[in-house]
């Protein structure tokens, strides 16, 4: 990763390095010139702690993941989350429909075309959501009349996709089905939206004018 891509997890300012390597394996964390705090405290943390802070929607954890690591699984995570959401919708559809002995219906259930349809629908909704976020940020900043740093669409898209990890929680919600499943699914959607907003806030640039 290029050093110019590093960011301070506290104030979101650019940093030349995360740590300095002295002789005999001695490492010293770099202090940010702007906020006088460690540029990235998470480089000393265990990945499990970083994951917990991300689940708690801490902006610093999102900045660490987005700017100071080479994590590049956002597309794989996106496909997995879409599969989870498609399965949830498909299971609800199957529960609401009665099984039929008609050969045409048997073939349809065998091929599970409904599942692929739900996957396509979830993908379209995700694309619409990401496009809506882009339009909202551009229009909002335009109305503010400010001139922020250039927006990196690829980086913002990566932030949105990574912050959709909460959709994985639909798996235990489906497995442990009970009377409160609709409430659980609503809370999961709220959690995903909260993660999206924190990821956008951690991304900075345009969104810093809106959320800070």
What order do the helices and strands come in, and which of them pair?
Layout: E1 19-21, E2 27-29, H1 47-55, H2 59-67, H3 74-96, H4 103-111, H5 113-144, H6 153-162, H7 170-175, H8 181-203, H9 206-211
Antiparallel strand pairs: 1-2
Helix pairs in contact: 1-2, 2-8, 3-5, 3-6, 6-8
The class by helix and strand makeup works out as mainly alpha
Give the neighbour order of strands across the main sheet.
1-2
> Span from first to last CA?
27 Å
Q: If you compute it from the alpha carbons, what radius of gyration comes out, rounded to the nearest whole angstrom?
A: 21 Å
* Helix content estimate: 55-70%
Using DSSP, what is the number of strands?
Answer: 2
| SS strand fraction | under 5%
Global geometry: globular
Please give the count of helices: 9
Count of separate structural domains: 2
Mean pLDDT: 75
Low-confidence spans: pLDDT under 50, at least 5 residues?
A: 205-212
Largest sheet: 2 strands, antiparallel
Order of helices and strands: EEHHHHHHHHH
Protein name: Protein ARV
Subcellular location: Endoplasmic reticulum membrane
GO biological process, one term: sphingolipid metabolic process
Family: Belongs to the ARV1 family.
How would you describe what is shown here?
By secondary structure, the protein is mostly helical. It contains nine helices and two strands, in the order ββααααααααα. It has two domains: 65 residues, no CATH class; 138 residues, no CATH class. The radius of gyration is 21 Å and the shape is globular. The two termini are 27 Å apart. The C terminus is likely disordered.
């Amino acid at each position: 990763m290029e050093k110019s891509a590093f960011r301070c997890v506290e104030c979101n300012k650019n940093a030349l390095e995360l740590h300095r390597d002295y002789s005999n394996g001695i490492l010293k964390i770099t202090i940010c010139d702007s906020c006088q705090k460690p540029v990235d405290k998470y480089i000393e943390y265990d990945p499990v702690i970083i994951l917990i802070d991300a689940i708690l929607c801490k902006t610093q954890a999102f900045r660490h993941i987005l700017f100071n690591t080479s994590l590049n699984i956002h597309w794989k995570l996106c496909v997995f989350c879409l599969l989870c959401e498609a399965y949830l919708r498909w299971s609800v559809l199957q529960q609401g429909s009665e099984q039929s002995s008609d050969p045409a219906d048997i073939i349809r259930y065998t091929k599970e075309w409904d599942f692929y349809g739900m996957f396509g629908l979830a993908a379209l909704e995700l694309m619409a959501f990401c496009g809506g976020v882009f339009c909202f940020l551009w229009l909002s900043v335009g109305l503010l009349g400010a001139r922020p740093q250039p927006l990196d669409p690829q980086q913002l898209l990566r932030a949105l996709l990574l912050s959709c990890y909460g959709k994985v929680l639909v798996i235990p919600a489906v497995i442990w089905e009970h009377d409160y499943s609709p409430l659980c699914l609503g809370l999961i959607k709220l959690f995903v939206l909260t993660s999206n907003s924190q990821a956008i806030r951690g991304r900075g640039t345009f969104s810093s004018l809106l959320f800070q």
